[in-house]
Every structure is written in structure tokens, then in C-alpha cells.
């Protein structure tokens, strides 16, 4: 599967883009002035929010790639609540100006997916990981390493989209989901991972290496 089947503008954005353009054209014809300017500003916002540019995929052995654009808000040792193991959690917060398509952090097979309805507190807060609406994807690499990538809805986000199922084989950087309008993604790593990201770092989906995994041999 092509990791970026809908380059430039994400397919999730076309209904919003077409609708906002139609409204802007209508208001331009009947209102004008500040109303017209505001309507076209909305079009520009929708256009930038749903952009989905192609990314270069690092081929570094053992690299765990960022599944989302944004800022690192947590790097901590926790219990992975999905796979029930001690893990290192790296959290990426996405604001409304980041690209919001989500990519696979590693080459791996989807073992299981869990969806949980929940609250919509600010995704910048740590409690969002356990209280907000979320969708967890458990991946296992070829050497048996477990990676859990969790899409978390935010204060404004109201829709998590996930396009994979158990048994699917993903390649690093492959697009697997989308979250609309502000959110975060948590990545649970094994304790022997060498974390490269620090709190406050700005990261880009696919191109930023969050951590590296030890290689056999």
C-alpha cells in the first residue's frame, strides 16, 4: 500500500474544503466586506488543516518514527494499559495547525485494536491519555517487539479515524488514520528502547525518529 495515497490534501478534508468554498462563494455574492473575508479565511484554515504532504521515510535500522506532527509533551516510564507491560510512553501533542494524518511508527503486524469512548479534555494534559476518547493499535515487529500507538481525541477533536484491522501488515510511515481538529498520539515503547525525543521537541510524522530499538546480532 502506498503510504501516502492522498498527497497534498487528505481525503478526510475534501467534504470540508468543498463545503467551505461553496459557503464562501455564496457569501461573496450576497454579503461581501468583512463577512466575505472571514468566509475565505475559513477556507484557508480548512486547507491548511487537511494538508497531507508526502514525507521521506528514514531507513535507519530499529528506528521508531513519530506517528504524528506536533510537540513532545511526555517522555515517561509507565504501564502500557493495552499490552499490560512496563513501557516508555512518548506523547506527541498536535495543535490545529499541525498535519493530522497518523502514520505507522514501525514495520509491524497489527495484533489488536482497542477503541474507547471518553471525554474531550485538553489533549495537552497527561490525563487525556486515560480519560479521553482514544483508539489504540498494537503492533508487533518482525523480531517480536511490541509497539502501541494510541490516537487520542482532544478538546476540539471529535472524530478519530483508523483504517487498519488486526492482521494488517504496516510499513513504517504508512498512513493508517486521522484525527480531526487537535489531539495527541501516545507511543508505548519497550524499556530497552533508546529514546531520542525530549519534552518540548517539535516533531514531524515519519521524518522524526522518536527512538531506536536494539537490533539482534
Write the layout of secondary structure elements.
Layout: E1 8-9, H1 14-30, H2 33-49, E2 51-52, E3 63-65, E4 70-80, E5 85-94, E6 101-103, E7 108-116, H3 128-131, E8 134-140, E9 146-153, E10 160-162, E11 169-170, E12 175-179, E13 183-189, E14 194-195, E15 202-203, E16 209-212
Antiparallel strand pairs: 1-2, 3-16, 4-5, 4-15, 5-13, 6-12, 7-8, 7-11, 8-9, 9-13, 10-12, 14-16
Summarize, please:
This protein has about 220 residues and is an alpha+beta fold. The chain has helices at about 15-30, 35-50, 130; strands at about 10, 50, 65, 70-80, 85-95, 100-105, 110-115, 135-140, 145-155, 160, 170, 175-180, 185-190, 195, 200-205, 210.
Describe this structure in words.
This protein is of the alpha+beta class and 217 residues long. It has two domains: 45 residues; 150 residues, Distorted Sandwich (Glucose Permease (Domain IIA)), CATH 2.70.70. It contains three helices and 16 strands. An eight-stranded antiparallel beta sheet has the order 11-7-8-9-13-5-4-15. The chain has a three-stranded antiparallel beta sheet with strand order 3-16-14, with no helix packed on it. Strands 6-12-10 form a three-stranded antiparallel beta sheet, with no helix packed on it. The longest helix has 17 residues. The radius of gyration is 18 Å and the shape is elongated. It starts with 7 loop residues before the first strand and ends in a 5-residue tail after the last strand. The model has no long low-confidence stretch (mean pLDDT 87).
Amino acid at each position: 500500500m502506498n503510504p501516502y495515497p492522498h498527497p497534498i490534501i487528505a481525503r478526510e478534508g475534501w467534504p470540508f474544503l468543498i463545503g467551505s468554498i461553496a459557503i464562501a462563494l455564496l457569501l461573496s455574492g450576497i454579503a461581501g466586506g468583512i463577512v466575505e473575508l472571514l468566509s475565505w479565511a475559513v477556507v484557508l484554515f480548512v486547507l491548511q488543516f487537511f494538508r497531507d504532504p508526502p514525507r521521506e521515510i528514514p531507513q535507519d535500522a530499529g528506528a521508531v518514527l513519530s506517528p504524528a506532527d506536533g510537540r513532545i509533551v511526555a517522555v515517561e516510564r509507565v504501564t502500557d494499559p493495552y499490552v499490560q507491560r512496563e513501557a516508555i510512553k512518548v506523547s506527541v501533542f498536535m495543535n490545529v495547525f499541525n498535519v493530522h494524518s497518523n502514520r505507522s511508527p514501525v514495520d509491524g503486524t497489527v495484533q489488536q485494536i482497542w477503541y474507547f469512548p471518553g471525554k474531550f479534555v485538553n489533549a495537552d494534559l497527561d490525563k487525556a491519555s486515560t480519560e479521553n476518547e482514544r483508539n489504540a493499535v498494537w503492533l508487533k515487529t518482525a523480531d517480536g517487539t511490541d509497539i502501541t500507538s494510541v490516537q487520542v481525541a482532544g478538546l476540539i477533536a471529535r472524530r478519530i479515524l483508523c483504517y487498519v484491522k488486526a492482521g494488517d501488515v504496516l510499513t513504517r510511515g504508512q498512513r493508517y488514520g486521522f484525527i480531526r481538529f487537535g489531539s495527541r498520539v501516545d507511543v508505548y515503547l519497550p524499556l530497552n528502547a533508546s529514546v531520542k525525543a525530549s519534552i518540548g521537541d517539535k516533531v514531524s510524522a515519519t521524518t522524526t525518529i522518536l527512538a531506536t530499538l536494539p537490533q539482534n546480532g
